[in-house]
Amino acid sequence: MQPFTLNKAATACNKSKATILKAIRLGRLSASRNDKNQWQIDPAELFRCYPPDQSSYQSVEPITSTQTGQENELLVRLELMGKLLLQVENERDDLKADRDHWRRQATMLLTHQPEKLKPEGEQIKKPEASLLWRKLFGRH
Predict the structure, then answer these.
(1) Which contiguous run of DSSP H or E holds residue 40?
(2) What is the bridge-based pairing of β-strands 32-33 and 39-40?
(3) What are the angstrom distances between the C-alpha of 60 and each of 34, 49, 77, 79?
């Protein structure tokens, strides 16, 4: 496999060029310069430091002879944006569900009215005997 330039390396591992360059300067990533003074980064070395996201490359169509590198890069970015959109939509749905749950909880707490307790000195009145009971036993 051909070595990556700084731009291609940044695209391949979804990092900025500044991040890749900083890793080279700090010695975390080994690279050399070609005759045009461009950085040449071995793909194995790059992916040792920055493992690629395998899920983002599985559904992208392979490069055909009519596609340029820029078109393939756009396909990869489009695929990543689609996955990010799905993730954001899932998080939004979770937040809506949480909001609805807590709204129901608050409504239940606000509308619930507990029974009022009788003061200690007050006696609870017993229901009066029915009319039939009074007539049978002579209590008027």
Answers:
(1) strand 39-40
(2) antiparallel
(3) 30, 23, 10, 7
